[in-house]
Design a protein that fits this description.
Belongs to the leucine-binding protein family. The chain is an alpha/beta fold. It is built from eleven helices and 17 strands. Helix 4 crosses helix 5 and helix 10 (314-333) packs across helix 11. 53% of the residues are buried.
Amino acid sequence: MFKRMTKGLLAATVAVFALGGTAPAVAQDDPIRIGSFLAVTGPASFLGDPELKTLEMYIARINGAGGLVGRQLELIHYDTGGDANKARTFAKRLLEEDEVDVILGGSTTGTTMAVIPLVERAEIPFISFAGGVVIIDPVKPWVFKTPHTDRMACGKIFEDMQARGISNVGLISGTGGFGKSMRAQCLEVAPEYDIEIVADETYAPSDTDMVAQLTKIKNTEGLEAVVNPGFGQGPAIVTKNFAQLGFEVPLYQSHGVASKKFIELAGEAAEGVRLPAAALLVAEKLPMDDLQRPIVMGYMTTYEAEYGAGSVSTFGGHAYDGLMMYKAAVEAAGSADPAAVREALEGISGFIGTAGEVNMSADDHLGLDLSAFRMLEIQGGDWTLVE
């Protein structure tokens, strides 16, 4: 179990906030409590570690600039290790004992889904950093998310394939929460792009060799490309086995591998791999007039100044977007009142984050469209823009 709190200097005045009637008095020396549960250790630590570092770094900056609506922010964090049962336990503690005003976190789809019933019942805003479309589809009143969905990843990949004349595709998917969800989404949207799934294999998170599954896929008649829905070490193993078997068709990964760690794990086998990802990975390669460039360059330089060159990943960017959207919502509401913040989050429009331009609504608690994704290819051990 791991718990970390970040506290700033507190003001000494008292304020009363009202929304649609008389609200209880809130002392300005009472901080806004931000709860978080992230996979800082364990197999999903490449997600949770940069997410926590980002929250800590930018909460300190916000507090140094005076906080939000005259109050300082306090971060209360628990490390789930990627375990859904721990996530549920910690979320209950955040809601019932720590009495947080918002929850930012959920590194994975599985841990996020485990806590949704709790936050919905408590009526506390929850902004997830996980990828599964099931998090926000169907819409849940108190649940939002920052990363592109697995359904969007399928669409972006198939869009690229369609442009290259590819139609016969093999899937090799992880059976974890994200891989399972993305596989289902790819199967569902494939016909919209005239894509036929001609092979469909899976692997468990604990598998260390996928040669058998990939051999079946390679022997499929008419195969033109392979897609690997998954995250963690599995996609790196798939990529290495793919190269070992001498495939002569392209390999596509998901945004679940959008960090330098994947390239390090897959090594030379990663050359030529394509994937949809956020603009943050190619911040310095974006056109000067790109609306996202100032945001992603600012986040990248700030993060790398603190944690080292080359350390930035899109996963920390998800946390940045979540915190900054919460900040914008509190400022718009003039209060940290959960109901007021929930309404303000739903009304966010024209917000430029590391994931793209966000336009939320009552029917859309993500607010991104397919144009927010960039298609990348790994060349020379680095990310390059395809478009």
